[in-house]
Amino acid sequence: MIMIILKKPVYENDDYLFRLGFDEIPTPEQAIKMLYNINPTQARYYEAKRRAFAEQNINPNVFIDFVEDKPSLRSLSQLGSLESTIYTSAVERENRIGYKELLASVKKHLTEKPETRRCVVRLINGFDNYFDSELKKPADVTCLSLIHYLGSGPKLVFRASDIKNELFVDIMTVYEFFVKPVYNSNFRNLQLSVYSSTAQNVSGWDDFIGSLKAIGVEGEV
Predict the structure, then answer these.
(1) What CATH number belongs to 3-214?
(2) Where are the domains of the chain?
(3) Sheet with 144-150, edge to edge strand ranges
(4) Could you tell me which of 132, 185, 168 has the C-alpha nearest to residue 23?
(5) Segment holding 49, helix H or strand E
(6) Tens digit of pLDDT for each residue in 117-163?
(7) How far is CA 197 from CA 2, 25, 83, 122, in A?
């Protein structure tokens, strides 16, 4: 699996852009096993998030064991649900269609029209949700804005990205639940592009690269 870094973040809230060739991304079980060797807490968090995505479980208590380690969970006790953090739930709310039905439609359209630029799936909250979450009371808002499905591979666009604590798990869960179900053997030489307009905890970039290398990523540029 090859990684190409086009824009590395160098300061807090800088942006970044990189691409991953994903024809040979390891299974989640393999990735978790390798991750346990370098970051057991991150591995357990990955397992918990996978289960929540699979079950569309938006109960905040599923992440109660990780509050001290994850800044994104600092307001967990004040949240009634995690309907934005759990992307398999957020995508249904924002697109008004069931998660599996949506992906089936994207796959069908992309297979029939591989040159299309219109397979865009949004997860982003409305402005009022973001505004209220800062000025009124804590609310669960999504960091992933949209997924743009193209014949050459998907593009992930993040509003914000916690490199140290969330990015590796975000990529692996989005790949499993939103990328792999869409792209089949008809698509070759695929690339996953990841862009974030702001990045947090950029000092964790080298550790993030280390996690990718642990699951077989090479070719950093």
Answers:
(1) 3.30.572
(2) 3-214
(3) 3-7, 16-21, 191-196, 153-158, 144-150, 119-122
(4) 185
(5) helix 40-55
(6) 999 999 999 999 898 888 888 889 999 999 999 999 999 999 999 99
(7) 23, 25, 22, 16
